[in-house]
């Protein structure tokens, strides 16, 4: 009997030890998760501060070029080899490099020739709205994030309330990315020499990619924060971070669309200056002229496939072609555009309930009238409901533009 009691007691003791060991392991794992949560919040804030510093740096380094003539001394072949051996020529300067050298030292390495860089207009096009993004993060996002890392509710409110501005500002930046990249590629030697001459650690293309990467970094942080809270059993906090993540994912989808539209071929418009993207979709078009004055349907009035893009200031019509590199993102080719302050929409076309017409107007001494030499463009939608949505969206912007034009005219007359 005594032996059985001893065995049972020993078994209970063993079980108790195992339970204690499991509890210690659980406690250690929880401490690790709590530490991870704290580190994620700290890194989110620190990367935001570093991001603001990077934006300030690129504005300081390159905005001056938009206000002055761009020239840079070129290097002869012999000196160029020395520069490459020292690792100072392209993309990244080592931390040990002297950031202050330029005058005598650089002139001793230069051939004496001048390399003409991009124009002031091209510099502004290359930089896009990066100064606006810099001011926004410095004055809005960073101060609010410094408070939000202490309260998950504030973090959710931050990203939800700023969703619209994040989408608008980063959308405008991303739609300009293709044009910016072209300007950099065409002047890559100039920017490499400019980097070397001024001791910049990164070349301009490496700096300008940072805003495109920022929304992705928010996505990574918020996703990890939500999962870590869930692992800790903090379900309400996990939900708050998930809601913040949803806002960022929505903004990222918008910027991806703007990046895609910005790759449009043969487009004469500055797409970044057309205002917000309001609506997009497929339709059939007939009757108008495309690029180079060619009709949409040569030799017939049969409608052709078209992709419509509505901005605040213009309606762009383009065609799509297969994109072998990205099958899910067809290539866009510009065909035609309408300035919304010069159009009239007719939403009733005979008995065709799915079609509306766009009449291009021209300014005369007595006001606006239909352009005589411009054919009417007919757009056929997939349904009557879809047509009503397009007509309403276009007319709303036409009315807004007319209202602002009248307001500016009154203010100008009184000044």
Question: Could you describe the 3D structure shown?
Answer:
By secondary structure, the protein is an alpha+beta fold. Helices cover 57% and strands 17% of the residues. It has helices at 2-62, 77-86, 103-109, 120-127, 130-148, 152-161, 163-175, 177-186, 188-198, 204-208, 210-231, 235-262, 384-414; strands spanning 71-75, 110-116, 277-286, 304-311, 314-321, 331-339, 343-346, 355-364, 367-370, 377-380. α1 (2-62) runs antiparallel to α11 (210-231) and α6 packs parallel to α12. Residues 1-9, 75-80, 86-90, 92-113 and 295-300 have low confidence and may be disordered.
How many separate helices?
13
Uncertain segments of ≥5 residues (pLDDT<50)? 1-9, 75-80, 86-90, 92-113, 295-300
**How many strands, what sense, and barrel or not for the largest sheet?**
8 strands, antiparallel
Give the rounded overall mean pLDDT: 82
Give the helix/strand class: alpha+beta
Which word captures the global form? Answer: globular
* Element-by-element helix/strand order: HEHHEHHHHHHHHHEEEEEEEEH
Beginning-to-end CA distance, first to last residue: 109 Å
Q: What's the number of extended β-strand segments?
A: 10
Helix content: 55-70%
Radius of gyration of CA atoms, rounded to a whole number:
30 Å
Residues in β-strands, percent = 15-25%
Task: Describe the secondary structure blueprint for this structure.
Elements: H1 2-62, E1 71-75, H2 77-86, H3 103-109, E2 110-116, H4 120-127, H5 130-148, H6 152-161, H7 163-175, H8 177-186, H9 188-198, H10 204-208, H11 210-231, H12 235-262, E3 277-286, E4 304-311, E5 314-321, E6 331-339, E7 343-346, E8 355-364, E9 367-370, E10 377-380, H13 384-414
Antiparallel strand pairs: 1-2, 3-4, 3-10, 4-5, 5-6, 7-8, 8-9, 8-10
Helix pairs in contact: 1-5, 1-11, 4-8, 5-6, 6-12, 7-12, 11-12
